[in-house]
Amino acid sequence: MSAIFNFQSLLTVILLLICTCAYIRAMAPSLLDKNKTGLLGIFWKCARIGKPMTAPYSFFFFYFVILFFIHAYRNV
């Protein structure tokens, strides 16, 4: 099933995008800072969102990992 039609998968993809952009901006800020507008500006905005909120995002990822394993265990 596509991540667009499953809310949990869509939320996981969005959280992963935000955390990845924040990590890239922390390691190489020039990659994202030069594209603040346009289509690539989405990644800069995700990095700005993810910078101050790393603790809540890590909690949500931990929650989704637990749900994933519970769901995978039930389908075995």
Automatic annotation (TrEMBL):
Subcellular location field: Golgi apparatus membrane
InterPro entries in the cross-refs: KISH_domain (IPR051523), Ksh1 (IPR009653)
A cellular component term, taken from the record's GO annotations: Golgi membrane
UniProt keyword Membrane, yes or no: yes
Keywords: Golgi apparatus, Membrane, Signal, Transmembrane, Transmembrane helix
UniProt signal peptide: 1-26
Parts of the chain that traverse the membrane: 54-73
Chief location: Golgi
Family note: Belongs to the KISH family.
Function noted in UniProt: Involved in the early part of the secretory pathway.
Record's protein name: Protein kish
